[in-house]
Structure formats: structure tokens, C-alpha cells
Amino acid sequence: MTSDGRGLRNATVVLIDEKGNARRIKTGSLGSYIFSDVSVGQTYVIAIESNTYRYSPRMISLDNAMSNLDFVPTGNARGRASTQSAPVGLRASPTRH
Description:
Elements: E1 12-16, E2 22-26, E3 32-39, E4 42-49, E5 53-54, E6 58-62, E7 66-67, E8 75-76, E9 89-95
Parallel strand pairs: 3-9
Antiparallel strand pairs: 1-2, 1-4, 4-6, 5-8, 7-9
């Protein structure tokens, strides 16, 4: 959470599939986002782009619908360790291929 208790809004969430195709979406006012039409049985990298905080990318294997994948910053944009939490949460609606 930010210092005032909210998720990070207007961050860019990047979903990268196994072929290197990237999809981008902005977080909403509560720090949430949804990727739809995501294929199950695939491995993805999810990265967060923010002007305020730094996040470590994560690799996930999607076997089912996924929710509540929160990202906590590893530092601020100037490279310092963050003393605040600014979570960003995922809800994916996968499709089977």
C-alpha cells in the first residue's frame, strides 16, 4: 500500500508470453488490473513499470484463472529501498487453446 493506504494507480503492467509478445495495461485507481484472453498452460513474465517505485519481474505458469498476485516494490525510482508498500494485483481470465 502507499502511505495513504491505496494500491498504485497508473502503473503499467507488462505481460510477456513465451514467444516474447508483450501486452501492456494500466492499473486502475485501486492498483488492480485484468488481462483477459490469456492462454493456460503457458509461462509468462509479468513486469511493473512505475515512475515512483521499482518492482522485480515475476515468472508465472498459468494453469487456471489467477487472482491476487500482488507486487511489492523493491525500491523507489531513485534506486533506494522502499519503506512503503505499493501493491499491484492481478486477475487473469485465461482461455484454453
